[in-house]
Design goal:
Pfam families: Mem_trans. It is a multi-pass membrane protein. This is Auxin efflux carrier. InterPro entries: Mem_transp_PIN-like, PILS1/3/4/5/7. It is found in: Endoplasmic reticulum membrane. The structure is a single chain. By secondary structure, the protein is mainly alpha-helical. It has one domain: Na+/H+ antiporter like fold (Up-down Bundle), CATH 1.20.1530. The chain has 15 helices and no strands. Helix 1 packs across helix 6, helix 5 runs antiparallel to helix 7 and helix 7 packs parallel to helix 14. The longest helix has 38 residues. The chain is globular.
């Protein structure tokens, strides 16, 4: 398969993300204001409390069985390694740039936690849909793509809302020990989506690590425990209407989350006082260092027999987990702790602008290696 053909296959899913994000940014402009602060606020609530739980639970319940989880055992370890390597590189970046204390948790979060939710859910199936993809028959490829993306979503979310949340809380306590917040900021979003939408509303519900993890645990239980699975999953299951309803809600999650992502990246255009060296350092970690390390990890795992050499799509997903830009949940957490929101918006803006190019190039290179 020619390099140009591989490049085109890799480009298509990235273009889909760019297009949806661009539409979200456009309709959030002051002149349009279809997705202004108030609308964004309410859409974020719907995504966090309805659509995101639906897609997480239905995807895991339908695609992850006990046998498939055993087969894919290396993926949770691979995701853990992205956090470990990212944290080490973040620590080096903090030392080199002398990052202020109140931003250190944000730097660690952006370097360690990648967008393992909606980007794989968009990109992996989109790659399979291309007729010239290097992973074989599109229908077979698409059948395999969903469990890979679903497990990535689940494990990434659990680590983000435990490790990163804890680190940011630690540095927030250090950085604001003597500070008193002057206002209450609304907090409502999802680990798959983006920054909370507005600081003009106060709501009683706040996203917590428990909120983010409980739905994934339920999805795992339904999928892995055979009696429960037979009740809810399949054309003859007595309670199949529950799964069908969740699946229908879940289909709306990705477009909504990507629109919100575009709307909230608009905040980054207003700028902040975050230093260029920190932004460039985070971009270098997420767009250069981690993808290169990912190739080494996956190749080593294949050579040691930890993953099957014949399943190229699985290897591609494992490499992709090292190459995605920072998780938007980091922005959610800055709103939760009321610290560094503007700085995070700028970081997210530039990392995602660069990711539009780096993801295409790295995806092309990954496919070329595997093909």
């Amino acid at each position: 398969m020619g390099f140009l053909n591989i490049f085109i296959v890799a480009l298509m899913p990235v273009l889909k993300v760019i297009l949806m994000t661009g539409i979200g940014l456009f309709i959030a402009l002051d002149r349009i204001k279809l997705l202004g602060p108030e609308a964004n606020h309410h859409l974020n609530n719907i995504v966090f409390y309805v659509l995101s739980p639906a897609i997480a639970a239905s995807s895991l319940a339908e695609t992850i069985t006990f046998q498939s989880f055993i087969t894919l055992w290396f993926m949770p370890l691979n995701i853990l390694l992205t956090f470990v390597f990212g944290s080490i590189l973040a620590w080096l970046l903090i030392k080199i740039t002398k990052t202020p204390k109140h931003l250190r948790g944000i730097v660690i979060g952006c370097c360690s936690a990648g967008n393992l939710g909606n980007l794989p859910l968009i990109m992996v199936p989109a790659v399979c849909e291309e007729a010239n993809n290097p992973f074989g028959d599109p229908s077979v490829c698409s059948l395999l793509a969903r469990p890979y993306a679903s497990l990535s979503l689940a494990m990434g979310g659990i680590l983000i809302w435990s490790y990163v949340f804890g680190m940011m809380r630690l540095y927030t306590n250090e950085g604001t020990e003597n500070d008193t917040p002057s206002e209450t900021v609304a907090v409502s979003s999802t680990e798959l989506a983006v920054l909370p939408s507005t600081n003009a509303h106060t709501i009683s519900m706040h996203p917590t690590p428990f909120d983010a993890k409980i739905v994934k645990i339920v999805g795992f239980i339904i999928g892995i425990v055979s009696p429960i699975r037979k009740l809810m999953i399949g054309n003859k299951a007595p309670l199949r209407v529950i799964d069908s309803t969740a699946y229908m809600f879940g289909e709306a999650a990705i477009p909504c989350m990507t629109l919100i992502m575009g709307a909230n990246l608009l905040r980054g255009l207003k700028g902040s006082e975050v230093s260029r060296s920190v932004i460039i350092g985070i971009i270098a970690v997420r767009s250069i260092s981690l993808p290169a390390l990912g190739i080494g990890v996956v190749m080593a795992a294949r050579n040691w027999g930890l993953i099957g050499s014949e399943n190229k799509l699985y290897q591609f997903v494992l490499m992709l987990q090292f190459a995605v830009p920072p998780a938007m949940a980091v922005g959610t957490m800055t709103q939760f702790f009321q610290l560094g929101q503007c700085e995070t918006s700028v970081i997210m803006l530039w990392t995602y602008v660069v990711a539009a190019f780096s993801l295409t190039l790295w995806s092309t290179f990954f496919m070329w290696i595997l093909a």
